[in-house]
What we know:
The protein is of the alpha/beta class. It has ten helices and six strands. The strands form two sheets. It has a four-stranded parallel β-sheet, with helices on both faces. A two-stranded antiparallel ribbon has the order 3-4.
Amino acid sequence: MIKYILNGFLNFVLPDSCVSCQNIVQDSGNYLCAKCYKELEPYNENHPWQSEQVSNGTIDISFSAFWFREGKPIQPLLHAMKYSKMKGVGVMLGGELGKKLAPQFKNEFDLILPVPLHKGKQRERTYNQSEFIARGVSEIFNVPVLNDCLTRTRFTGTQTKLNKAERKENVSGAFTVNQKSASAIRGKNIILVDDVITTGATILECARILKQAGSGKICIASAAYAELKINVV
């Protein structure tokens, strides 16, 4: 009770502010004010490489919730999640992603997997932002998140300055399926989750490895889609 009262007092004295415009957010716990939330731009298109990747059997579905636009509220929202330890942003974005996927795919998937960070990067950041997006999707789909299935076996560095071909080469062979989890994914339909998809190189490499390990259908999904010309971080 004392903790509840104290938290309420602190929220009054130091009200939550929008991570985009810094105006006061009326509902404590939200990350964007109503105005900035309305500026989130839904991604209602197919990824430009989607049909190719479906045709070659790497994936079955690909999906993003929002466009990533520089200078728009999605940018500070993602940065707050990745660099300011606002894990709740990931859960919120995952919930939005899940709500957009659920009407068509609610009962088609068995597991949700986050794209892993390299262990060195995860130690530096202290958590994997994609895991919290996966948790948000899980709340909508009511299926479990499997965090330790995929391992990033080598550090690939940032891909923001690489072109499509360079990104694909950079992540080739960078992931493996943890043998302890191999039986858990065999024949299972999986939603594979990341924060931002651009060329898809990273998440498609993960999907390829999962298919090789015997998974069923793969849906790759992200909170946002960014055109290659945009520097996301």
